[in-house]
């Protein structure tokens, strides 16, 4: 082994299977490989195939990146392990294969998704520094910190009475109906998840400083100073293949058809509508969206993922009469059932707006593409992200969704077609408001791109983490050379503690 190989830092990335969690962590692994780190993605058996090509392309361009598939123990299965895997998916069946892999390879650090909370015990037992990846940005963490500290939601009389979030850099108002159930009823996530969020080496954040500077500062002051903002990680998808194949095993349209359709439209004229990888939208809501989009008169690409009450994907009778035919004939709309090449669509010059559920990845991807949004939060931390987009960044128009509902619960709230059409008109209508939001979004996109380039803030944070891990390894090697071999427990001291981690 030559000296260059000896000094190469080795980072392991263990993504959760669901789309909103797996995609950014895989991007993060690729990003660190581009910084000269030896990156290893540990894939559950169900996810490995979709990652293969991107990893191979990176290898061909000289990056040191490897994909290792964990093999399930005999007679064991992993339920619901596709892109729409919900947070409750129990992956602990992978405990033993993970332990074996880490014992054999002993990386310099282990980056894990908070939904694999059980993996913290495996890693701690081996004395490997662990870094948590929660998949969200700083703003939502700060909002939740304010709620936990001051409990303003307990001082209002109804679920729909607005209250202020104390202590935040901007004036942010929410209602109790918009809060996650585990915030309304006290911290959730269970003991194991809470434990796994403590005693970490630090937190990896998919965001960039210039997007939310006041909240990044708040986050580092009030929540943990051991945080590295390294995003937007989706920018590591540099060529068309990367963008088309991201989450590829589920892609539901020929990418070229999609691009041809977009090419036929005017710049900034198309609205992209998607609710992410997990949400289930009831048929009654889909009907309102259909009429609302048609009434708005703007061309659209609408991704229809899971329809609630239609797990076998066969019920299509929710479509309003003649809708499909009208939009095909007029070439006004393109419907994608299943999975769309989102990065490719967002960055196309014809795309001028995005109706989004405000999942953090979609939020950041809209910013990165310079596309303003209609915000339609449903679940998770999406109502906080809506506030960031509308009240802080001012690149979003609210559709008027007020009800936080867990992904597995049937939604009672239906947003009517008039509200849909009105929000779309405000976003795409071409007036002063449209122009200002589009300009702001474009400016943020420039900052996002600069952040990950050499000299940018995210680039610097990634390098800072690499340096810290190298120093940690040197200290570790030094201690090992003076501590008797049977005293290995001394080597497990974590380098940093993350206080007050949330159950997001
Ligand atoms: N995504 C995609 N095609 C789709 C739906 C989603 O590529 O048809 C990607 C999207 O680009 C984003 C992720 O899946 O990176 C969804 O993450 P987000 O945080 O926005 O929402 P979640 O799925 O976690 O609710």
Give a written overview of the molecule.
By secondary structure, the protein is of the alpha/beta class. The chain is 42% helix and 13% strand. It has 19 helices and 17 strands. A seven-stranded parallel β-sheet has the order 3-2-1-4-5-8-9, with helices on both faces. The protein has a six-stranded parallel β-sheet with strand order 14-12-10-15-16-17, with helices on both faces. α6 (138-150) packs across α9. The longest helix is centred in the C-terminal third of the chain and has 26 residues, at 457-482. Mean pLDDT is 88; it is low at 1-5 and 485-504.
Short description:
The chain has 19 helices and 17 strands. It is α/β, with parallel strands linked by helices. The model is unreliable at 1-5 and 485-504 (pLDDT under 50).
Note poorly predicted spans. Answer: 1-5, 485-504
Coarse shape: globular
Main pleated-sheet profile: 7 strands, parallel
Q: Please count the beta strands (DSSP E, at least 2 residues each).
A: 17
**Please, how many helices?**
19
- Quote the average pLDDT: 88
Rounded radius of gyration (Å): 23 Å
Instruction: Give the amount of beta strand, in percent.
Output: 5-15%
Strand order, biggest sheet? 3-2-1-4-5-8-9
Query: Multimeric state of these chains?
Result: single chain
Q: List all distinct small molecules, including ions and cofactors, that are bound in this structure.
A: uridine-5'-diphosphate
Give the distance, in angstroms, between the N- and C-terminal Cα atoms: 43 Å
Helix content: 40-55%
Structural class: alpha/beta
């Amino acid at each position: 082994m030559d000296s260059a190989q000896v000094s190469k830092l080795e980072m392991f990335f263990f993504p959760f299977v669901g789309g909103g969690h797996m995609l950014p962590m895989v991007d993060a692994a690729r990003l660190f490989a581009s910084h000269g780190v030896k990156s290893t993605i540990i894939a559950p058996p169900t996810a490995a195939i979709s990652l293969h090509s991107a990893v191979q392309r990176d290898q061909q361009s000289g990056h040191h990146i490897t994909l290792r598939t964990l093999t399930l123990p005999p007679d064991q299965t992993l339920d619901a392990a596709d892109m729409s895997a919900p947070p409750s998916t129990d992956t602990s069946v992978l405990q033993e294969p993970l332990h074996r892999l880490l014992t054999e390879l002993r990386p310099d650090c282990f980056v894990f998704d908070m939904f694999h909370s059980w993996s913290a015990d495996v890693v701690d037992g081996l004395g490997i520094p662990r870094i948590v990846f929660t998949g969200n940005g700083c703003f939502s963490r700060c909002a939740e910190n304010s709620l936990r500290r001051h409990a303003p939601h307990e001082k209002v009389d109804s679920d729909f009475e607005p209250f202020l979030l104390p202590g935040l850099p901007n004036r942010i108002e929410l209602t109790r109906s918009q809060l996650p159930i585990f915030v309304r009823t006290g911290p959730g996530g269970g003991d194991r998840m809470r434990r796994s969020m403590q005693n970490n080496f630090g937190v990896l954040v998919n965001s960039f400083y210039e997007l939310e500077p006041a909240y990044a500062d708040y986050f580092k002051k009030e929540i943990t100073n051991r945080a590295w903002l390294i995003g937007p990680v989706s920018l590591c998808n540099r060529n068309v293949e990367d963008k088309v194949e991201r989450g590829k095993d589920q892609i539901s349209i020929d990418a070229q058809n999609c691009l041809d359709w977009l090419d036929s439209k005017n710049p900034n004229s198309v609205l992209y509508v998607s609710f992410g990888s997990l949400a289930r939208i009831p048929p009654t809501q889909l009907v309102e969206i259909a009429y609302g989009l048609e009434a708005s008169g703007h061309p659209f690409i609408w991704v229809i993922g899971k329809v609630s009450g239609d797990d076998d994907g066969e019920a299509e009778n929710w479509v309003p009469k003649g809708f499909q035919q009208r939009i095909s004939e007029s070439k006004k709309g393109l419907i994608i059932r299943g999975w769309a090449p989102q990065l490719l669509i967002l960055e196309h010059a014809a795309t001028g707006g995005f109706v989004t559920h405000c999942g953090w990845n979609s939020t950041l991807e809209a910013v990165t593409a310079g596309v303003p949004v209609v915000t339609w939060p449903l679940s998770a931390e999406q109502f906080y992200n809506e506030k960031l987009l509308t009240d802080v960044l001012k690149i979003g128009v609210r559709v008027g969704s007020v009800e936080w509902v867990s992904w597995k619960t049937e939604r009672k709230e239906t947003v009517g077609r008039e509200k849909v059409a009105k929000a779309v008109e405000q976003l795409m209508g071409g007036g002063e408001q449209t122009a200002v939001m589009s300009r702001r979004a474009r400016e943020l996109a420039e900052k996002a791109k600069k952040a990950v380039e050499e000299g940018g803030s995210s680039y610097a944070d990634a390098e800072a983490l690499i340096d810290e891990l190298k120093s940690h390894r040197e200290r570790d090697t030094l201690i090992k050379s003076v501590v008797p071999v049977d005293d290995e427990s001394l080597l497990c001291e974590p380098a940093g503690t993350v206080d007050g981690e949330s159950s997001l």
